[in-house]
Amino acid sequence: MKISSTEVLHVAHLARLSIDETDLAAFSEQLGGILEYVAKLSGIDTSGVTPTAHAVDMANAFRNDKIHQHLQSEEALANAPEADDGLFVVPKIIE
To answer: What would the pLDDT profile of 45-70 be if each residue is shown by its tens digit?
Structure first.
């Protein structure tokens, strides 16, 4: 599929890319090759192929939740460099 320089410039504009005039012919040829390959893939019969989200069958390795005693405020603040009224004191970073 042949892509014109005008179409390459239009796609580059949409993608907010600047393309040097010397590269237009190369990009036109490369994009045309990509579109020819996609057209070739569109012709493949995939009616017997099950749709998948991933190419490799994967399973999440989640662990079971276990209920634990939570940390008390005094214990959490025990190693804090600075605490005030039960809260961590941190440097102000946004003014």
So the answer is: 988 888 888 778 778 888 888 999 99
Q: Is the pTM of this model over 0.70?
A: no
- Which percentage of the chain shows pLDDT scores above 70? 100
Q: For residues 7 and 52, give the distance between their C-alpha atoms in angstroms, rounded to a whole number.
A: 33
Q: Which residue has the tokens 């090759």?
A: 33
DSSP the chain: ----HHHHHHHHHHTT----GGGHHHHHHHHHHHHHHHHHHHTS--TTSPP-SSSS-----PPPP---PPPPHHHHHTT-S-EETTEE-------
User: What CA–CA distance (Å, rounded) separates 40 from 43?
Assistant: 5
CB atoms closer than 10 angstroms to residue 9: 17
What pLDDT, on the 0 to 100 scale, is given for residue 62? 87
